[in-house]
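Please discuss these two lines.
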Amino acid sequence: MPDAARLVAAVSLALLAFIVSGQIMPLMPEGTDFGYFTWVNMGIGVVCGWVIMGKRAGRGITGAINNGITGMVALVFWGLVVQGTYEMVGKSMRRHYDGPFEAIGAIFQIAVKYGAVLLQANIIGTLLVGGVLAGLATEYAWRTWK
């Protein structure tokens, strides 16, 4: 059921995805075509905020911080899986893999490779602070607009 907490959580994680996507782009190889990279990540942020964080609002300040970190971790996980899947599909169209199991396994290899890019101090800090702020904003929205 739609409520203010779900909306604030969705917007907060979409904003976090937008900021972190902008931090990731300069770290990727020169000439990388990002296409809808930022938009896809923001969509994942909206879904994770609405589904994961929104329904867990109303559990106090500690719960809000945990909720924000959980939402941020889910955003990163699903972002890596979706971007890894997209990269795998592109490679499989160029007949890069010998079979379907090799292609499915490549999703996780690509996700780990992309995850290594996230291991920068500024990105980790942005994710942690953004996750906590998103959780607190969601809790505030739940308390204010029940």
User: Anything to note?
Assistant: The chain has a mean pLDDT of 93. The radius of gyration is 17 Å.
